[in-house]
Amino acid sequence: MTDLPLLDTDGDPASTRVVVAMSGGVDSSVVAGLYARAGYDVVGVTLQLYDHGEAAHRRGACCAGQDIYDASEVARTLGIPHYVLDYESRFKEEVIDRFAASYASGVTPIPCVDCNRTVKFRDLLATAEELGARYLATGHYVASRALPDGRRGLYRAAEEARDQSYFLYATTAAQLERLRFPLGEMRKADVRALAAGFGLPVADKPDSQDICFVPGGDYAQVVQRLRPEAAEPGDIVHLDGRVLGRHRGVMHYTIGQRKGLGIATPEPLYVIAIDATRQEVRVGPRTALTVSAIAIDDVNWLGDMPFAEALARQADVYVKVRSTRPPVPAHLARGADGTPAVHLAVGEEGVAPGQACVLYDDAGTAARLLGGGTIMRAERVAKSVAEVA
To answer: Is 115 an active-site residue?
Structure first.
């Protein structure tokens, strides 16, 4: 394995500036090491996204105080300049506030998508340009390759268990021209081996697990502080209209949830829908979870033909409705109201509004990312209790 083919850049390395987004973890640290060892003009940048003093004691979360320190130590080891940028206010507005508002409205957000879409790629790319950089490189596990028409495409990572393409569906074609993801063709074991070879102090650092701004993984605490109405109790209602009990606030529930409902019934029940306006959590049998079509909004499209044409042709795609699920066959179409929709060849369970519906050209590990959108609503296969009984 050689360094240069992974970097996929044009021009003389010594005169090509690359800004590397350094989180303090092993992945972005190795990316900085790859470019630095290949002779590029590398500038490391770490984003301070919230008051990290509160979270510095907490392990397993990115962007905390320890991570900023680790990133600076890696930069010192590599001999590259390193800057910490205060993005706290924009991160709160674009990510944390949206996160809380989503739960308060009864939908399940993906803060990493919002962060990538706004703070990391829109705002950080602008900063990289101000620093005179030609490229912004990150440690995401996704592959970026040149297409025959001169544009760039995104592809699932070589190591399926590490693939992060689901969280990057909102990356635009213009952004892809300047973004580089050197780890997309690599495996984690190779990345750690490179970190050790570079002598990086984070070579054995555990991967982050938590949402970075959620202390200890307790997202409800964050939501309740910002949107207290999301913690107001209400009724748990069966699809047949029976009131089965009371819930602790809509923020504690998501579509497909079975555990933690706090009700005793002879048959297992699942969260089928959340009506934040009425403060209702609606439950039903598992068969009521299956959906056949998904309406999506805020679509980002990276395919070859225009998105309107893909809709008109009812183009075949493969979709992921959760990051941990494999892509399944579907086709594009417009709903009766003109909204873009995805029609599934086989019904999927637990499709939650607010999550992402991500589109690929294939189900395999080398599939190309075609784009995606936010799930607005889903059409259940069974529309009444009589149909699921």
So the answer is: yes
